[in-house]
Design a protein that fits this description.
Keywords: Aminotransferase, Pyridoxal phosphate, Transferase. With 429 residues, this protein is an alpha/beta fold. Helices cover 37% and strands 11% of the residues. It folds into two domains: 3-27 and 272-347 and 381-424, Aspartate Aminotransferase, domain 1, CATH 3.90.1150.10; 31-269, Aspartate Aminotransferase, domain 2 (3-Layer(aba) Sandwich). The relative contact order is 0.17. The chain binds pyridoxal-5'-phosphate.
Length: 429
Amino acid sequence: MTSAEQLALLGGAPAVEQPLPHEVWPPPAEPAELSELAEQRNTDISIKGNSGPIGQLETDFLAFLNGGARFAVTFNSGTSALLAAYFALGVREGVDVVGPALTYHAALSPVFALRGDVVLADIDPDTRGLDPKALQAALTEHTKVITVVHQWGHPCDMDAILRIAERNGLRVLEDCSHAHGSHYKGKPVGTFGDAAVFSLQANKAVYAGEGGILVTSDPGVHDRATLLGHYRDRSRDTVIDEDLRAHWVTGFGLKLRMSPFNAIVARHALAAFPARKEARHRCLRHLGAQLGDVTYLEPVHVADHVDMGAWYGYKPLYRPAELGGVPRSVLIEALRAEGMEVGAPSGPRLSTLPLYAHPENPLFPGVPKKGIAPGTGSHAEYVEQHALSLPTFTNWPEDTTLIDQYAEAFRKIGRHREALVRYAAGPSR
Ligand SMILES: *Cc1c(COP(=O)(O)O)cnc(C)c1O
């Protein structure tokens, strides 16, 4: 430490030199992807069932899951795929879905469009996903579906959750939108539940731009999900049950298909994924190894039996007591002044959103809701209020210097704890 060193917040030189943005995602397309897109423009800009790049993407995706699921059906978004999954799993008026109190809302919001109800259960502070004990306590006589979200890439405690599901005759939906390529005890996520959905939206590790994919091994789930979003050719050609197939002309009234252009983008992203996953692991191992002596951060826990896939951001927890009680917002302000791309994770606890907090289903006034929601004192609240969101970093070894400077910025803040405490208390704010 030179005596001249000062927090950038107070006029010193920033620790991170590279200008923003640091997380550039999705990466630009290679020429092969661009020429395939151009060719598709003149071959077919519409969709014929699951032909062409749509069927190819679905085949590739099943291979990506090591044959752990029998069927894959693409949709125009992860949210659409979740709607189809909930419909296929039997969600309707009078049915409760139990899901995590802190996650991206779209994991559960489609339940309301089917007149179902969501019961929120607390999360496990280590996995940041559904806590099995809280799940058990949240079950009602109307519960039919458990939704797990492998939050920020870390798989949920699937052994315990599947035991609860089996004991109670419940179905399990995995939302794997943060967890492409994550494994639990050697098995890819998306192959544990009755159905799984992966969003392929632009921010996700495998991206179509806009898109989602539903996977299942249950022919009944496959048929009903297909009919909900894919009338005509695809329903005629792929729905297995004859009575259900009779509806092929109309399906169940909705058209939620992926465009072939998005499928082409997603196929290329999937092909590039293994190398990117490896690069992310190298980057984040390099970062994590340097944060051990930053006492005001609780490192991200990764269980031994877990492979973090593509991570979906690096989200350590802040320990304010180790930094003189400085509020998280001030810490973020100081880190940003040092040149870092850092913030609080974007999603609030679901119980704070009007769709969840309202005593009736706002889409269908008169349909009551239970509103069971972990509030003050929950792990969900703790993580919501203490997590920091850092870039995932994907360029190895190009990002090494940048990562080193992030680690240095964290250490620098620690060295200037007193100055930051004074700043936080001062009238200048
Ligand atoms: C992104 C995301 C969704 C929604 O997917 P879209 O493709 O944006 O509709 C659902 N659940 C989780 C956990 C997500 O991160």
